[in-house]
Amino acid sequence: MGRNSSPPRLDGNGNENGKNNAINNNCDNNNDQGLYSIRDRFPLKRNPGHSRDRTKQHSLLERPPVRNRARFNRKGLLHFPFRGIYLFYFLIFFSVFAFAVASMVMQSSITVTLFRQGERSWMRSIREGLRFGSSLKFMPAENPRLLAEGGGFDPMRSTDRIGIRGPRLAVILGNMKKNPQSLMLVTVVKSLQRLGYVFKIYALGSGEARAIWENLNVQFSFLGPEQFDHIDWSLFEGVIADSLETKESISSLMQEPFDTVPLIWIIQEDTLAKRLPVYEEMGLQHLVSNWKTSFTRANVILFPDFTLPMLYSMLDTGNFHVIPGSPVDVWGAESYSKTHAKHQLRKYNGFSMDDMVVLVVGSSFFYDELSWDYAVAMQTIGPLLMRYARRNDVEGSFKFIFLSGNSTDGYNNALQRTALRLVCCPSTVFKIDVIPCVSVQQVASRLGLTQGSVRHYGLDGDANGVLLMADIVLYGSSQEEQGFPPLIIRSMAFGIPVITPDFPIIKKYLADGTHCVFFPKNNPDALLRAFSLLISNGRLSRFAETVASSGKLLSKNILASECITGYASVLVNLLYFPSDVLLPGSVSEIKQGSWEWNLFRKEIEHVNVDISVDSSVVHALEEEFAKHIIDKSKNRTEIQDQDALTAQDQDLVTEIENFEDYERLEMEEINERTERDLGVWDEIYRNARKSEKPTFEANERDEGELERTGQLVCIYEIYSGAGKWPFLHHGSLYRGLSLSRRARRLTSDDVDAVGRLPLLNDTYYRDLLCEVGGMFSIANRVGSIHKRPWIGFQSWHAAGRKVSLSTEAEKVLEETIQRSKGDVLYFWACLDFDGEGERSNHALTFWSMCDMLNAGHCRTTFENAFRMMYNLPSDMEALPPMPQDEGHWSSLHSWVMPTKSFLEFAMFSRMFVDSLDALHSNSSEPGMCFLGSTYLEKKQCYCRVLELLVNVWAYHSGRRMVYIEPHSGLLEEQHPVEQRKEFMWARYFNFTLLKTMDEDLAEAADDDDNPRKMWLWPLTGEVHWQGIYEREREERYRLKMDKKRKTKEKLLERMRNGYRQRPLGL
Fold it and tell me: Which residues, including other chains, have CB under 8 Å from residue 205's CB and lie 6 or more apart?
């Protein structure tokens, strides 16, 4: 092979003379530390046919030595007499090759961390499916993939939409440190604000970044543990949690009704990922389940790179998603450069400034057997490098550093064994044998290198210092990365020229010859050319300095634009935008392409800045669960010790049992000898019937019920779900009204709305009616539950939105009711949009606000329902006029009125709801709701119209409307009756007319004359008319006469048969 190669000589056995003589030369002088024979496992043979004759095979250590001169054969290089330029090019080959094999050793430990015993079968299937040249990637589940691809938001822009406010987002901050994580989140929030999002920040604690967040024109408040359950998360279109520290606050989002609020959880820490294998080894499955429950609640969990979701694979429930991009690498490089110098690091590690340090790095993630593919590919570089080994244009001392794995003896030994195989016999590098470990210095000595030419550093050490020492960084991984390699970003941030394979993900952001130097994978010629471009006379060339400078400038904001647009895309495709919300701007409108470095410049320049990310909640939960286990074990031991019976205790128990048996037998004998009178049958029957009467529940009349005795008013707070309990009030003025039996408070006398109105058992109608369904349940036989002259209602939302009555306002309300005369509606939660209406171009009226809340169809739907309710002709106006003044209107079902007026309102509401349901059922698309644009709005189709219905009824029925300021208790009458007489439609809201209509419907229901298949009206309350009253009176009279007849017959029977009193003395 080659022009100067002579034919190989054969020995007496027909084998090539001198084969493996390099091994003999290196090992025959050391009998104790020589290489062990590998003949028994993998015999090396030139001709496979010779393996049949084992008597002619020789051990590798038994081959006769040959003269020490350079010689080549068809198998490759046998000896290495390299110096100078030859040594440099061979070191390039050796560094890349050795790094690949060393990285292979690292993969096993990472694999053990990722795939524990519970995942062995899954890991085995992955190994069987992967082949050389393939790569392992994180593939998101169906839902996260839809988040990235979208497809459901653009049609909303093409429809007519009336919005008054921007979409609200809540951000929960685990800490307020000035670190790369805060820089990323601040940049994203500022960009999303430009698209129209409105943010409210909830901080779990104060910190250095507080001033930055407060200056972002956002609402800001602190959130303590006692406040977790007092936040109305339904006010927001979505919630963003920024770290693992927010886990406890997320628990409040797991209960109904907040379990449907979209939650985005950003996780940038690996603290929990490192502890998960430990939990499994220790058997702490309950702790893993606790974390998995929290992870399951999130609609999507966002990671900044593709390694973290693999580390957290034990907790993956299909909601993992990756948005690449974080300033942590650039931040870390700049902060490290402020406090460390290159010459000091080289001096400390034994390098001089004249050395040319080449750092070989690779993928931060390896998996079983995949790195062997890379090693096999690198083995072919050897002969190609030798073609250029005769060039002598490089001078200087070259040092090669491998940055991989960790700083343990296992990784160093793997590198040393690989290098020794390469020295002794390159063709046997991939054989599995036993080779004694030697030091890196011994390897270098065998190669003729100076001491310290080859070194290994672990990623668990000072990786920043290793990067800062380097002159050139070679990215040596053969696996195509799914995300941009972070080590390349950090190297560029240090201002180091980078040589990397031309992977698509890297070519997407870097330009060849401008920001780095590319070479085709497994192309040795291109790799040599890349090195030659960066080196000139043993130093970095001007081209290398230009590449390093351009790369450093680019690394400053690399992936920033992708990160911002990624978050915007996730929000657009995850959130629901109600009818009154303005749609955010398009993702294409984002122009931000850099991080907000100017807000964090001082922290980067700070000497003692700490950018490490740790999670105290992980360790706190560990201590809590460990303490629970210890206490439980201790209590069990104490109970066992206390329950242990002594011999004296057993004798005492036996004596007590014998005495009880003796007494029982004696009493039985006495009872048998005594004559007993069973009594009169009527008395026995009467006592039995009394015992069968149902008893009241223990919580039927508690202290609150006793306190309400004699009061004029009771306000029913409507709720459904345990998450709403903290928003409910306690005391004599309030009483809970639960729309769900499962979510009813057990320690209070809350009214069971489902038990009073069976219609609410149907979740479909319960969602359609919302709080009005609870009002219908109270109105149904109101005398059995409410016997006070005044009645009020309040939604749990009032407390969440800070518009519930204060103590002072409650006193004002009670005092005002005592001296009130006539029908008055007192309300304290008014219809507004948090001041957004003041900034709109058009004045907001009652009907315009109703349209905003109902997808623009409030007026049309109300008019059609009103027309059907009163059977009005089509050419007649059917939309009740409402004034366009600046007065307040009631909302959130928070009002008080006389009980008699409430029953009239309930009568009107039942008929209106029935007409509304008839329109909904008779539409061309059954089940389609035109009063909502999102899934939740369509599910609660009637709720927003019914919430405003009390205003129309009170206005046109002539009731006074008085607004109570919820905090101060100030009273202010709205829309005076004298000013609205000419606008009122009093004839349609007259009590006599409504009562007649109600009786007509009741008669039709009594006669089973249903106007449609599913008639809602009879199911919403009492069905009563004069005919039913007369029939009930006749039934009562019949029962009364039957009772008299039976009593008379019983007396006659006694008189006929006689009745004799038994003597008392016998």
Answer: 175, 176, 222
Half-sphere exposure of residue 883, counting CA atoms within 13 Å on the CB side?
Answer: 19
**Contacts of residue 21, Cβ cutoff 8 Å, sequence gap at least 6:** 63, 65, 66, 78, 79
- Kindly give, in sequence order, each residue whose CB lies less than 8 Å from that of residue 1019, ignoring residues fewer than 6 positions away: 758, 759, 765
Are the C-beta atoms of 795 and 815 separated by less than 8 Å? Answer: no
- Which tens digit of pLDDT belongs to each residue from 372-425? 433 433 443 333 333 333 333 444 477 778 787 666 555 555 554 444 444 444
Give the pLDDT of residue 969: 93
Q: How far apart are CA 459 and CA 285, in angstroms?
A: 30
Q: Return all residues near 763 (Cβ < 8 A) that are at least 6 apart.
A: none
- Extract the residue ranges of the chain whose pLDDT is less than 50: 1-80, 105-130, 132, 145, 149-152, 366-396, 416-441, 443-449, 607-608, 639, 695-700, 835-841
Q: What is the C-alpha separation between 718 and 772, in angstroms, rounded?
A: 9
Q: Which residues contact 131 (CB under 8 A, 6 or more apart)?
A: none
Q: How far apart are CA 52 and CA 68, in angstroms?
A: 32
- Contacts (Cβ under 8 Å, ≥6 apart) of 308: 267, 268, 270, 273, 322
Whose tokens are 């009872």? That residue is 671
Cβ distance 965 to 994 under 8 Å?
no
Structure tokens of 804?
Answer: 């519930």
202 has which bridge partners? 172, 221
293's CB contacts (< 8 A; 6+ apart) are 254
Nearest CA to 943 out of 238, 262, 254, 234 is that of 234
- Amino acid at residue number 503: F
CA–CA gap between residue 98 and residue 80 (Å, rounded): 17
Look at residues 886, 861, 873 and name the one whose alpha carbon lies nearest to residue 945.
Answer: 861
Structure tokens at 100: 């690949």
Determine the Cα–Cα distance for residues 422 and 419; give it in Å rounded to an integer.
Answer: 5
Residue 401 has what pLDDT?
80
Question: Tens digit of pLDDT for each residue in 133-151?
Answer: 556 677 766 555 455 544 4
**φ and ψ of 26, to 5 deg:** -85, -20
What is residue 811's predicted lDDT score, i.e. its pLDDT?
Answer: 94
